[in-house]
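step: validate -> pass
step: tokenize input -> pass
step: predict -> running
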Amino acid sequence: MSGPDVLTLSWEYPPVVEGGLARHVHGLSAGLVRRGADVRVLTRGAEAVPAHAESDGVNVQRVERTSPPAGLDAFLAWVDELGDDLLAAGTAAAADRRPDVVHGHDWLVAAPAAALADALGVPYVTTVHATEHGRHQGWVQKHPQSHVHGVEQAMMARADAVLVCSDFMRRHVLDVFGPAPDDVVVVRNGIDPQPPVDEARVAALRAELAPAGEALVLCAGRLVYEKGWQVALDAFDRVRRSTAPAAPPARMVVAGSGPHEAELHAQATRLGLDDAVTFLGWTDDATLPALYRAADVCLVPSLYEPFGLVALEAMRGGCACVAAATGGLREVVPDGTGVRVPPDDVRALAAALRRLLDDDALRRRLVVAGATHAARFSWDDAAARTLAVYDRLGVPV
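step: predict -> pass
step: emit ->
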């Protein structure tokens, strides 16, 4: 018997990547295919990206859509338009072949995913990657946060099963939205095996980003406030000012883009770090493994973090990790695999960074322990757990 026919909706899918959600949907979809499922992904398109493609056995269909606009009200209107396009594409795809389950990822595709499931009479599963309540520390009473929170409430109430990426997120979803506990299932993110790294590329990045042999500190991810990059810049400034004159100064590289980018550039200038911090902008998946290998320390200073895929990627890639002890990062970076510090604590983050930069032996121990720990996370395991949820809903697996 063949596996289930899964119709997946997501607002991003590689190579159109805003953050970790795209990597999750890709990894999970490929894992489901390896376990016999037929997976079709409906997502948004972009210039020079084919409207139809097959990758890792996943059939990907993209609807034409411009890049997300600036401004929250404009973004919400854009999300509604994307939903209409995805619903039309999903209706056409289902007419060709009816799926066994509709799986939506986050609130941005909740409306079309639920509408498709209702029209087809099949289960609706949602994966919650983050919540507006968590991103804004509970301040969701005013527009536009209230609108997003309301969409998430409706999504939780409608979904036949809710998947989350960590034990922290399960507690959070149950506390904030109150669905039935049996309906909320932890399916942790996986991670692909370490890809081959071009050592020449690593050496070139070191020469470019730390030309005087400085220690290299990496920040990688979407540039949004809740990721805590403003804390990382303040901590890095503190480390630079406290460095002994005889020691080579450290340099920082920021790999990513997002709505907080201009503020971070301004902060770096205000701190006098323009010559010490390099903003690379959006960085493709081919470059990131070389960056992890080139860097001495990776900072993950999130204020709110449902999981912490960057920390896992850094450990897999051979980079010592300093992470905030918040959310899912407590599970992703357990004791002995990296250094954890209280969130939003500049002094603690600076002290941990200084300690790792000064202690080569500690850094090497964490690299080995982190790589061993990261290897325990797999998309095949995530796919198996997801299939178990489908099975419980009566989907043929």
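step: describe -> DSSP finds 15 helices and 14 strands in the chain.
step: cleanup -> pass
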